[in-house]
Amino acid sequence: MATSRNDAQDRDSHDSDALEHLADELGHDADAFTPDVESTPRDLPGRRPGAALASEARPTTGPAAVLLDIGTSRRDGFTHVLWVSHLAESLLGPQGYDELRDTVGTTAGVRNVEWEGADHLHVDAPDRDHEELLRDARAAVAELLD
To answer: Where is the composition biased (Basic and acidic residues) (predicted)?
Structure first.
């Protein structure tokens, strides 16, 4: 019985040594994968933390009332996502709402547009800045409102 206990302790010791060696080896090259904290932006450009919680008046008409905001898409094959107001159909009318996807697709640099639910338009426009794309998409929506 004493022999099997010693064998188990030897195996545990060997396993611990192997794990320690692995951790040491992984640590040697880790610096190459560590992000440079100073080069990482703290906030999204043009954004103020807590702005969505502020009691600012939001537009109730016009393109800014239809396309509320823009972000980075996490969907494969897309670079941006437009947040579409739940009031978009009532602001644009049924026909304008049906044309919204195609209208955003005519914006310069846009390769593809796809709905996610009723309030997210994923956009593939890899060469476009977020703020510029939002501005141009709103300009396209303004034509639907006329």
So the answer is: 7-31
Q: If pLDDT is split at 50, 70 and 90, which confidence band does 62 have?
A: confident
Q: For residue 45, what are the contacts with CB-CB under 8 A and spacing of at least 6? A: 130, 131
Same domain, 139 and 85: yes
Does residue 97 fall inside a structural domain? yes
Q: How many structural domains are present in the chain?
A: 2
At residue 139, what are phi and psi to the nearest 5 degrees?
-65, -40
Q: What is d(CA 136, CA 47) in angstroms, rounded to the nearest whole number?
A: 18
Please indicate, yes or no, if residue 49 is contained in any of the structural domains.
no
> Phi-psi region for residue 124, left (φ > 0), alpha (ψ -120 to 50) or beta?
beta
Q: Report the distance separating Cα 60 and Cα 74, nearest Å.
A: 28
pLDDT tens digits, one per residue of 27-61: 777 766 665 555 545 555 566 666 666 666 667 78
